[in-house]
Amino acid sequence: MLADRYTRNALQRLYLYRARGVAQASPDTAQAAVARQRVLDDLGSYLRQMESQAVANGVSVHWADDFQEADRFVVNLLRASGSTAALRNHAPLLDEIAVDRAAAANQIDMQPLSPGDLYVQLVGSRPSHPVFPAAHLRREDVSAAAHAQWRVPVTYDTELLARSAFLRLRPALLDAKAAVIGLNFAVAATGSLVCLDNDGHNAGLVSLADHVICLLGIDRVVANLADLHLLISAYAQSAWGRPLPSYVTQVTGSDAGGHKQQVDLILVDNGRSRLLGGPFAPALRCIDCGACHNICPVFRQVGGAGYGAAARTGPIGAVTNPVVVRARAANLQPFLSSGCNACAPVCPVGIDLPGLLHDQRVRQAPRTALKEKGAFWVWQQLLSHPQLFHQALRLARRIRMR
Ligand code: SF4
Predict the structure, then answer these.
(1) pLDDT digits (tens, 9 = 90+) for 312-326
(2) 233 has pLDDT over 80
(3) Are residues 86 and 190 in the same domain?
(4) Average pLDDT, stretch 220-247?
(5) Residue 351 CB less than 6 A away from ligand 1
(6) For the chain, first and last CA: distance in Å?
């Protein structure tokens, strides 16, 4: 379960360098929590309002119940517009629906537009953190991948490696015909589709592409522009330790400065409505800032791989995965906690993560206890029957040698 030593050190550094800046930031947690909760208390109405505003802006809206349906929409929409390649931004939702895998299975070349995601893809890994997808990668592995793919001389200079990625990304961006964009928010009052970054890639992509496919988790609607401003600031402070992002990109229609575009919006449920109205509904306030990951001593030891196949990691993943993913392995994730409560004060939208983790543990304990009881019964039988014990040892050795 423990990540290797290098990954643990890398996540520790992320904590020291990023969390320090984040700790100095002070988002208005109470107001941000109210803004998120306002929408969640009447999610259906806000979603309908956002949908009708988006349609009025010239956007085609589609609803996906699960990740397979979301992937099907992406693939079919790209095919319908004749695209065999697309660029995508960095967004946890795109990892959640495994859009790269779906595109590859349908012979569509889906290239990430963030160097972190690009290297994660080249190395054949998975993102482990919602904001810094490549935080767990070794520079040696990144360098080997860059050398194998682009013949970049072997180097452990991370600046150079990032520049090599940017060099490849820029021509791809200038040629982009289709864009797949995971959004941070959408505004019910105006139908604006919003994404945030610090390098301007989102703005470039949505301005240049002829076909823009946006995806939004159904929980990420905000009521109005005032709430949007509040949440943008909360996100920037908690994710990057800065007052605002360098770029806020808004898609408000199908006309980007005289450039006529096709804009599609896919609203993704994928288990979110199972959380709504239940004891873990406050987790839907999450804006994926990653602050609880940075501060969590368990996440820093196990990394993203500790959360199995689930796309959402860290304390928030440990709360939501048992309800959303519903895989047996996810039921153990609430136990990935030291009970230190460090995640409570850093969450910019006031989610009581320690309380929800505790409730999930109580819920999952009987199932886990049953398994533990079974394992102890087998162990007891082996210890009381030496012959059986030695047979089991021989069998285990043979299995190990295969
Ligand atoms: S639970 Fe809170 S701290 Fe953790 S990622 Fe979500 S918004 Fe950020």
Answers:
(1) 999 999 999 999 887
(2) yes
(3) yes
(4) 94
(5) yes
(6) 22
Q: What token pair was written down for 4?
A: 């290797």
Domain that holds residue 187: 5-12+25-273
CA–CA dist 95, 32 (Å, integer): 25
- How many angstroms is it from 316 CA to the middle of ligand 1? 6
pLDDT at 94 over 90: yes
Nearest atom in ligand 1 to 316's CA: 1
d(CA 332, CA 335): 6
CB atoms within 10 A of CB 191: 23
Closest C-alpha to 353, from 312, 305, 381: 312
pLDDT attached to residue 79: 97
Domain count, the chain: 3
Question: Is 17 part of a structural domain of the chain?
Answer: no
- Given a contact cutoff of 8 angstroms between Cβ atoms, the answer to whether 193 and 251 are in contact is yes
> Does residue 285 sit in the same domain as residue 218?
no
From the alpha carbon of 239, which atom of ligand 1 is closest?
8
Ligand 1 center–CA 288 separation, angstroms:
5
94 and 177 both lie in a single domain: yes
What mean pLDDT is predicted for residues 68-72?
98
Q: How far apart are CA 225 and CA 248, in angstroms?
A: 13
313 plus 207 within the same structural domain: no
Q: What's the gap in Å between 28 CA and the centre of ligand 1?
A: 14
Pocket flag, ligand 1, residue 295 (CB < 6 Å): no
| Per-residue buried b or exposed e for 93-111, using 16+ beta carbons within 10 Å of the residue's own CB | bbbbbbbbebbeebebebb
Q: From CA 371, how far away is CA 373, in angstroms rounded? A: 5
Going by alpha carbons, the residue nearest to atom 7 of ligand 1 is: 286
Higher pLDDT, 387 or 363: 363
Does position 20 have pLDDT exceeding 70, yes or no?
no
Give the pLDDT band of residue 19 (cuts 50, 70, 90): low
Check pLDDT > 70 for residue 270: yes
Distance CA 239, CA 25 (A): 10
Whether ligand 1 lies within 6 angstroms of the CB of 287 is answered as yes
| pTM, full prediction | 0.86
- 98 & 235 share domain: yes
Question: What is the C-alpha separation between 219 and 338, in angstroms, rounded?
Answer: 28
pLDDT at 170: 87
